[in-house]
Design a protein that fits this description.
single chain; Peptide Deformylase; five-stranded antiparallel beta sheet; 3 helices; binds nickel (II) ion
């Protein structure tokens, strides 16, 4: 018996991972459309794959446009204390934002290895539908506030580098392209 036959087949219960699009991909600049009730099957199939892809990356947020699906859908999990706390955001929108701003370092799975300080409202109230279709609201500050705004930005074709000066943005995009070229060699 060869060792190959001892290797277990891929677990069918394990959601298949999705390839993450890397900037500057045109799909990352497009505005995603509202999820409607007719999209329920698509959303149900996509959510476990989005979570699995985010955890595997690893990341704390992933939006559907980042895997080439132009729907207003994102997943977030800050994994506090290394425990999972998944949040599925369907049609999320910021309905209130503090005047107070906060600056923190952000990265993005679509700009691997690139980080920069981004300034955003310190606190936000986000309204969305969860995976059961129930309307929900989160009031967030700190990392969660930044993460929610970052993911909602993706649904509007906005990347964290779009919050920076053109000079800084171009520097990061050039560095990313260079690193990817070197990696491909
Ligand atoms: Ni991102």
């Amino acid at each position: 018996m060869s060792t190959a036959t001892l290797i277990a087949p891929p677990d069918a219960a394990e959601p298949a991972l999705l390839p993450i699009l890397i900037a500057p991909h045109a799909a990352l600049k497009a505005k995603a459309r509202t999820v409607r009730s007719a999209d329920a099957d698509t959303v149900r199939a996509l959510l476990p794959r989005l979570f699995a892809t985010m955890y595997q990356a690893p990341g704390i947020g992933l939006a559907a446009p980042q895997v080439g699906v132009p729907l207003r859908l994102a997943v977030v999990d800050l994994q506090p204390d290394d425990t999972r706390a998944p949040i599925a955001l369907i049609n999320p929108q910021v309905v209130a934002a503090s005047e107070e701003l906060a600056t923190r370092e952000e990265g993005c799975l679509s700009l691997p290895g690139q980080y920069a300080d981004v300034t955003r409202p310190a606190r936000v109230k986000v309204r969305f539908e969860d995976e059961t279709g129930a309307r929900r609201e989160i009031e967030a500050d700190g990392l969660l506030a930044a993460c929610l705004q970052h993911e909602i930005d993706h649904l509007d074709g906005v990347l964290f580098v779009d919050h920076l000066s053109a000079l800084k943005r171009n520097m990061i995009l050039r560095r990313l392209a260079k690193e990817l070229r070197q990696k491909a060699k």
